Amino acid sequence: MQDRKKLLVALLVASVTAVALGDPGLVHAQATIVIDVLDGPGEGFNDPGAPNSASAAGGNAGTTLGDQRFVAFAYAADIWAGLLDSSQAIVVGATFDPLLCEASTASLGAAGTNTVHRDFTGAPVSNTWYPAALANALAGADLAPGNDDIDAFFNSAVDDAACAFPKIWYYGLDGNPPAGTIDFVSVVLHELGHGLGFQTFVDLSTGTRLNDVDDIFMLWLENHPTGEFFPEMTDAARVAASVNTGNLHWAGPDVIAQSSGLTSGRHPSGHVEMYAPDPQDPGSSVSHFSTSLSPDELMEPSFTGATHDVGLAAALMQDIGWSTSSSLKTTAGPASDGSSSDGGGGGSCFIATMIGSHNNAQ
To answer: Rounded to an integer, what distance in angstroms lies between the CA atom of residue 247 and that of residue 173?
Structure first.
């Protein structure tokens, strides 16, 4: 039997706190995140190895390597929990597994929604897929009881001396990773962003929509030269837009309103460029901000340095329907059959690379 941990994470008044299930001190949360550790005994979040001393100096009091991973994950989850409103617990299934780890490139992690839902009671836009956590928040109910809402996994090989990649994880909480390390909190923030809704469910190899239905993320994707948005396009046009570098834009009003701080990657209209390299970058194209953005944003496809600020991702979450206040968005749309589907196109990958000027792991 697996050694399973669960943790409720919430933003408490005047403190950042992670508490065990059932703790009566869990109050005043904007959202609650449940971390469901799926690693077996002695591995991943349950690794009994000695804690990392640099991470301990960075504020992580975990007594084992696995504990430090867990504390850092909980810290990142708490940042998102403090930004979003939901009456429903957001359950994240989390594991550490060996992933790609080579001398110049390492896959740091991936995450995505576990189920998708449409036409539920409270859905702002009809006949449109929503990721589980957002759908639950809008519905005020758990639409897939017994299932994790988000699946997230991270690369245990980065901590393995056998891996040729020259950097290791840093589990500190201070956002100040020493040279030769990668800030785990930043990576968890990025991956949770995908699970919360920063991803399209379009099959970019063909341009087809999931079960021939729009998803809420694609509604704000615009091919700027044509002015067409993803829902208006043919399958072939969506494929073409996905490689139209510099011209695939996010045109949601909340991102536009918050984008003025960008010095590059922003159109005069306020639109923000999305990641659309030619050829496509499977697992990364479209479901990230462009690497042209400056200052760098958390939701770019490659690790560019430690940040515990979700940046424009918060505004994008508002564009797709998340509430950051006591009232949900009121964009109207009829609800009907409460359909749902397992999966939503898989997780989006986060990469660290030692090649190139912009995407170097710092």
So the answer is: 37
**Contact criterion met (CB below 8 Å) for 231 and 218:** yes
Q: Write out the two tokens for 92.
A: 């994240």
C-beta pairs of 48-55 under 8 Å, 24+ apart in sequence: 52/169, 52/170, 52/171, 54/170, 54/172, 54/178, 54/181, 55/170, 55/171, 55/172
- Spell out the domain ranges in the chain: 5-196
What is the sign, positive or negative, of the torsion defined by CA atoms of 190, 192, 193, 197?
positive
Element (H, E) at 314: helix 312-320
Phi, psi (rounded to 5 degrees) for 95: -145, 160
DSSP state of 147: S
- Residue 355: is it exposed, middle or buried by C-beta count within 10 angstroms (0-12/13-18/19+)? exposed
d(CA 190, CA 76): 9
pTM for this model (two decimals):
0.87
Which regions of 29-127 does DSSP assign to beta strands (E)?
33-37, 90-97, 105-113, 115-117
Instruction: Tell me the per-residue pLDDT of 193-246, one tens digit each, with 9 for 90 and over.
Output: 999 999 999 999 999 999 999 999 999 999 999 999 999 999 999 999 999 999
Question: What are the distances in angstroms from CA 189 to CA 152, 259, 290, 336?
Answer: 11, 20, 18, 34
For residue 26, CA distances in Å to 68, 72, 107, 180, 336 come to 22, 19, 35, 37, 35
pLDDT at res. 9:
44
**Segment 314-342, tens digit of pLDDT:** 999 999 999 984 333 433 322 333 455 55
Distance of CA 172 to the CA centre of its chain: 20
Cα 92 vs. chain centroid, distance in angstroms?
11
Mean pLDDT of 17-46: 68
The answer for 352, left when phi > 0, alpha when psi is -120 to 50, beta otherwise, is beta
Residue tagged 């190899």 (tokens): 205
Strands 348-353 vs 128-131: parallel, antiparallel or unpaired: unpaired
Residue of 256, 211, 215, 209 whose CA lies nearest to 237: 209
Question: Could you tell me if 157 and 105 are in contact, meaning their C-beta atoms sit under 8 angstroms apart?
Answer: no
Quick check: 183 and 177 in contact, CB under 8 A?
yes
Query: Which segments of 72-185 are extended strands (E)?
Result: 90-97, 105-113, 115-117, 128-131, 150-155, 168-170, 181-183
